[in-house]
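Morning, I've got a small favour to ask if you have a moment. The fold is given in discrete form, as structure tokens running alongside the sequence. I'd be grateful if you could look everything over and explain what you see. No rush at all, and the record is pasted right below.
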Amino acid sequence: MKRLLVLSLVVLLTACSEEEPVTRIVFAEMDSASEPYMSRAIITPDYLRMDYNKDDDDFILFERKTGIIYSIVHGEKNIVVVKPLAVNIKTPIELNIEVVKGELDKDTPSVEGKIPEYFQYKVNGKICYETISVPGLLPFATKVHKQYLKTLAGEHARVLSHIPADQHDACDLSANIYHYQMKFENGFPINEWHGEYSNGYKRQMVDFEEGYKVNPELLKLPEGYNRYSPSDMTG
């Protein structure tokens, strides 16, 4: 078991020799419009499952081989299917990216021999979000999250032409389409917060485990549910 208490940055870790270990990560998340809630990511060589840290709740299943995202809503017995699409549309506004490395307290504990690092991610001079990241931490989980975000980037790009020009936001375009992998380039983010962007969203890693024994049933799609694409849902 690997447990990380992010609020105090107290870290207890052990090494893992597997190249792609099944990994469970638990986060505490919140934004300015909601109470804090728990979420979970389960990463396997074939899938990424994301849910509310409950086995029987709604969940997202990302299939690595195909790049397809399945969003399952049990109450409506629906599955929204998001297929990977290439980003073939140019950014409608110029995006000037700047990554600024800051400093943490000198007594910040190391993680597997590495010191967590603080970064600001600026687009067109505005701080879009900030992270505390650990270089080399959870490389398998980092890779899979990038793959997942690539599929989301294609879907966001698909609807970009429907957004009025005066509503284009540099942070949104960068984080969700054109530089979706940026926050993972400096290690896995154990803390991230978005300030005014994205409704004050915050996420903190509170626990993770490599070598996790996952129930295979959690990686299956429910039978008999209606399937829709995002374009079906929005028209």
User: Anything to note?
Assistant: Residues 139-158 form the longest helix (20 residues). Helices lie at 139-158, 170-178, 230-234. The longest strand covers residues 126-134. The chain has one domain: 3-229.
